[in-house]
């Protein structure tokens, strides 16, 4: 067997583990004999695998040998004080002093550059030069540069093909929605996440310091995951132990967090004037006099005429976030280990915040070599996610902030909280623990046990098996109690305040307990062999997984005291409890064949026969194949002779058929529910049962046919690299409902059917340049991703005008009236087609069908959604002496969001909405006249005036570090010490200005995205 392919086989089994050289020394003889000695020995890698073909030389002589297929070697007539030099392709060379020993065993360390030449794929690894699929990866070290506590926010811009939108910065719920190459289905578009070989949730909450790499499977390479792979696959590989003495690492960072952007609201004098204008438009008398408006502005009477900034009253300037990480790694030739502990804290942005997120995590990855043919791996990871909130949601709190009238006190001058906006909502109080608490604790345990067994009598044959068990416990406790707000008593002099209880009349408690369990077992038979210039890697496998869960809920009211937050202290009246459970299973058979000739002609075929209980018994299994091929033209003689500018050039193409079974279960059966009423029998209410829906016995998975063509090139050695892909996906069998309706009196709905078809196409480009100028090293990496989908069919309602059809448009393309300006005068209104009651200062709607009137048929399907179609990333990396610098710019275009606030007499306006509004004296305004909530047609009828272009460019990550010189570290018994400053979302360039461009569509009532300033250190003993 050719040595480099043995190395490839080992990496396939171990998923790119890194190694450090160690060797076992035999005792040195007390008295050396004068004659030369004969030496026998063995060469292994850190996991105990024998390394055949290793060159062993006696230093400064011509004497040498090579190790056999079992790693054994022998040398005769060697001096006792000789030095042996071990050399092996892909491994660091090693010198070992003989010191009179006749038996020497040594362990070689995999060369890190060689490790970088491999990429993790489904159920194994591949050399990058031989990969034929669209697979991109990022190292864990790059993710660590971002001070984000949520990993999903660190991927976009770094990996081509990733499209992500972050709608919130709320601690515990601050993750991004991730799409791989955009959306291709009308249903669930979330990718499958695989952690250390097993499909699992919780990727975003992993400790980034535990991650070795993240790979993204985007084309036929994902077909190995069958009916779950249509939306792409995210593969996460955690760190493993390295050989050598124990290495202890500690990392700490302290972050200072602030919102990226909060809307600037109108001040009290402006709002008072707006209220008068609204009343005037409605034919009512003004509420505020000129003198009162003046008092709001001059601050002469803060009790009666305040000028309140509700955001300043509730949001603090800086919130804190910190992380501690401790890890220990090392090993011998028989055992390698990686153990880590981590803790993080993330505070909310409210003053006296009840909102925060705490997490503790632990991980232990162990590798053991039982003998030269048996290796074991044991992984155990645990995580406690502790989310704390007030009983009022973030949406409720920010709704109150948006609606807070600046003419009313949030906090009275004496420090007591002001009155509520409605329903007891004063965010000064409802954002704190004064109204109770919600505590959400999520306990996660993931365990793996795996074995790899070489079959010694068949070269290249080995088997491996693994068992994984995941347990999740979730306990949510929500305690709500009355709170006190204060109103000014108009009948008493001296600013007397009246206290009043708000919210619930008596304390209430609800508790929710959920338990989820997942067990997965797989078994593989692998064959990896080289026959001269022919290289083969293959396996066949079986896998089965079961999922079970239980829930239990209970609640009580009428507690006698708000000091007793236990269910047993609640009243018996109106108490309740209920529960549910589920069970789910999958079974799969799958395999892969990878072949290449001279690493020039490349071919991969993988397939999965996948079964899921979501479908009827006779339709439960499906076959999902994937094939890809590549040609490294730069290895050809004609290329080497005639095209010298390109050092490396490869073309590749793939086709894969994948599925998507992420649908509600048991749609092929008739399902039933309990009615709210029933029949009285013997004084007891017996609930009735009714059918919820008609069954669909033909239901099956979505089918995605993915096509990809790519090229890879290198110029000037490795100084300039290029990779580009064009992809096309056609998704069929998408579950949709027919346009016909079921009569309401039946109480049933039509089942969804596999009718829908969608296509998605686009391209990805990665260009990278790196160079060294003396001691200065720099890298520039640019990524571009474009993905745009189109609905081909989904049984649209017949008779829809062409300009309103969603068929042929993007998924979720909205239907809006087309806003074409603002009426300057009443004469313009009268001369145009308009909504009844329209007046000067209103938004003009286009008469799309030219029938002289504005109605629902004038709405237009706009081919633009809240998901971007273009993602850009530009990374700058520089190193000079002991300094290092990384800067990531990230941008997104092609998205729009519908944003209109809930403003008027009900609450305040963003300043930008009213600064250049239409008035009788400002008829050339860029904004319409002031309105009261949705009473105007151009607010109640959704239209393109409020459909914001949310293109943006961000300074996503900035990191500047300094490594203490090695000589200084050695003096203080350290291997390394790095101090750094970093930041996230430091600068945003966009056209929205009022809200963050990644704001969710709606009325601006959301927890804002965050900007992070960070300082930290990493030290290794």
How far the N terminus sits from the C terminus, by CA atoms, comes to 40 Å
Q: What fraction of residues sit in β-strands?
A: over 45%
Mean of the pLDDT scores? Answer: 89
Principal-axes shape call:
globular
According to CATH, the fold-level topology of the domain at 37-107 is: Immunoglobulin-like
DSSP strand tally: 49
Structure annotation, total helices: 13
Q: Which class do the helix and strand fractions yield?
A: mainly beta
Major sheet size, sense and barrel closure: 22 strands, antiparallel, barrel
CATH 2nd-level architecture of the domain at 37-107: Sandwich
Indicate the CATH class of the domain at 37-107.
Answer: Mainly Beta
The CATH superfamily title of the domain at 37-107: Carboxypeptidase-like, regulatory domain
Helical content stands at under 10%
Low-confidence stretches: 1-33
Query: What is the gyration radius calculated from CA atoms?
Result: 33 Å
């Amino acid at each position: 067997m050719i040595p480099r392919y043995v190395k490839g086989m080992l990496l396939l089994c171990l998923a790119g583990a890194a190694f450090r050289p160690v060797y076992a020394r035999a005792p040195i003889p007390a008295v050396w004999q004068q004659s030369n000695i004969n030496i026998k020995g063995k060469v292994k890698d850190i996991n105990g695998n024998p390394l055949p073909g290793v060159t062993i030389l006696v230093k400064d002589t011509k004497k040498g040998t090579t190790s056999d297929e079992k790693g054994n070697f022998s040398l005769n007539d060697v001096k006792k004080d000789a030095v042996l030099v071990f050399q092996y392709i892909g491994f660091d060379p090693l010198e070992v002093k003989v010191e009179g020993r006749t038996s020497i065993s040594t362990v070689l360390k995999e060369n890190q550059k060689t490790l970088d030449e491999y990429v993790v794929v489904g159920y194994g690894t591949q050399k990058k030069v031989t990969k034929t699929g669209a697979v991109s990866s990022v190292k864990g070290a790059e993710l660590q540069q971002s001070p984000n506590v949520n990993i999903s926010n660190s991927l976009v811009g770094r990996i081509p093909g990733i499209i992500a939108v972050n709608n919130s910065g709320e601690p515990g719920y601050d993750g991004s929605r991730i799409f791989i190459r955009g959306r291709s289905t009308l249903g669930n578009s979330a990718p499958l996440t695989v952690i250390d070989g097993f499909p699992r949730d919780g990727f975003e909450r992993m400790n980034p310091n535990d991650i070795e790499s993240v790979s993204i499977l985007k084309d036929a390479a994902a077909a190995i995951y069958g009916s779950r792979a249509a939306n792409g696959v995210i593969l996460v590989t955690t760190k493993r132990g390295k050989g050598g003495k124990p290495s202890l690492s500690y990392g700490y960072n302290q972050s200072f967090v602030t919102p990226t952007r909060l809307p600037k609201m109108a001040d009290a004098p402006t709002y008072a004037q707006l209220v008068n204008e609204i009343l005037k438009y409605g034919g009512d008398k003004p509420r505020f006099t000129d003198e009162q408006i003046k008092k709001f502005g001059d601050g002469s009477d803060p009790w009666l005429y305040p000028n309140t900034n509700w955001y300043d009253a509730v949001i603090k300037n800086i919130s804190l976030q910190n992380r501690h990480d401790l890890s220990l790694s090392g090993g011998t030739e028989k055992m390698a280990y990686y153990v880590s502990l981590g803790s993080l804290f993330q505070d909310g942005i409210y003053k006296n915040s009840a909102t925060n997120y705490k997490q503790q995590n632990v991980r232990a990855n162990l590798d053991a070599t039982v003998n030269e043919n048996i290796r074991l791996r044991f992984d155990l990871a645990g995580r406690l996610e502790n989310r704390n909130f007030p009983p009022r949601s973030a949406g409720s709190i920010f709704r109150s902030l948006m609606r807070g009238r600046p003419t009313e006190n949030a906090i009275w001058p004496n420090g007591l909280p002001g009155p509520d906006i409605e329903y007891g909502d004063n965010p000064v109080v409802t954002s704190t623990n004064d109204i109770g608490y919600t505590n959400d604790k999520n306990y996660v345990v993931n365990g793996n046990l795996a074995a790899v067994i070489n079959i010694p009598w068949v070269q290249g044959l080995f088997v491996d098996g693994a068992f994984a068990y995941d347990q999740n416990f979730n306990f949510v406790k929500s305690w709500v109690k009355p709170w006190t707000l204060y109103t000014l008593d108009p009948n008493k002099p001296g600013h007397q305040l009246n206290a009043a209880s708000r919210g619930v009349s008596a304390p209430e408690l609800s508790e929710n307990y959920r338990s989820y369990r997942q067990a997965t077992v797989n078994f593989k038979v692998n064959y990896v062999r080289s026959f001269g210039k022919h290289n083969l890697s293959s396996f066949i496998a079986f896998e089965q997984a079961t999922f079970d869960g239980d829930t239990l809920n209970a609640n009580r009211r009428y507690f006698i005291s708000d000091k007793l937050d236990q269910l047993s202290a609640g009243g018996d009246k109106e108490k309740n409890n209920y529960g549910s459970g589920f069970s789910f299973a999958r079974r799969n058979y799958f395999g892969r064949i990878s072949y290449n000739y001279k690493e020039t002609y490349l071919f991969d075929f993988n397939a999965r026969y996948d079964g899921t209980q979501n479908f009827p018994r006779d339709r439960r299994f499906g076959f999902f194949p994937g094939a890809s091929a590549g040609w490294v033209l730069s290895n050809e003689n004609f290329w080497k002779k005639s095209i010298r500018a390109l050092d490396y050039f490869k073309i590749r193409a793939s086709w894969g058929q994948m599925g998507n079974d992420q649908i509600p279960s048991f749609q092929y059966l008739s399902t039933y529910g309990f009615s709210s009423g029933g029949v009285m029998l013997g004084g007891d209410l017996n609930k009735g049962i009714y059918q919820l829906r008609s069954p669909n016995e033909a239901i099956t998975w979505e089918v995605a046919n993915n096509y990809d063509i790519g090229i890879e090139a290198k110029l000037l050695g490795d100084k300039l690299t290029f990779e580009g892909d064009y992809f096309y996906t056609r998704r069929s069998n998408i579950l949709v409902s027919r346009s016909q309706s079921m009569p309401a009196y039946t109480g049933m709905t039509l089942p969804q059917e596999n009718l829908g078809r969608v296509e998605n196409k686009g391209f990805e480009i990665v260009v990278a340049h790196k160079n060294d100028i003396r001691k200065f090293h720099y890298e520039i990496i640019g990524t571009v991703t474009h993905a745009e989908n189109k609905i081909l069919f989904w049984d649209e309602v017949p008779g829809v005008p062409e300009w309103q059809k969603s068929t042929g448009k993007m998924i979720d393309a909205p239907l809006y009236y087309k806003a074409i300006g603002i009426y300057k005068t009443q004469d313009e209104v009268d001369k145009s087609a308009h909504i009844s009651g329209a007046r000067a200062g209103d938004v003009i709607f286009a008469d799309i069908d030219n029938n002289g009137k504005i109605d629902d048929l004038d709405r237009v399907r706009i081919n633009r959604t809240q998901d971007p179609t273009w993602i850009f990333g530009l990374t700058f990396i520089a190193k000079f002496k002991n300094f290092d610098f990384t800067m990531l710019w990230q941008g997104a275009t092609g998205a729009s969001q519908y944003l209109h606030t809930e403003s008027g007499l009900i609450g305040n306006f963003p300043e930008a909405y009213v600064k250049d509004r239409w008035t009788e004296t400002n008829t050339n305004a860029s904004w319409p006249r002031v309105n009261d909530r949705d009473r105007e047609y151009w607010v109640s009828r959704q239209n393109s005036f409020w459909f914001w272009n949310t293109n943006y460019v961000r300074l996503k990550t900035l990191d500047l570090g300094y490594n203490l010189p090695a000589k200084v570290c050695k003096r203080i018994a350290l291997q390394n010490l790095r101090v750094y400053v970093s930041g996230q979302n430091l600068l945003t360039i966009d056209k929205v200005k009022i809200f963050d461009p990644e704001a969710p569509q709606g009325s601006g009532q959301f927890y804002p995205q965050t900007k992070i300033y960070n300082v930290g250190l990493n030290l290794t003993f």
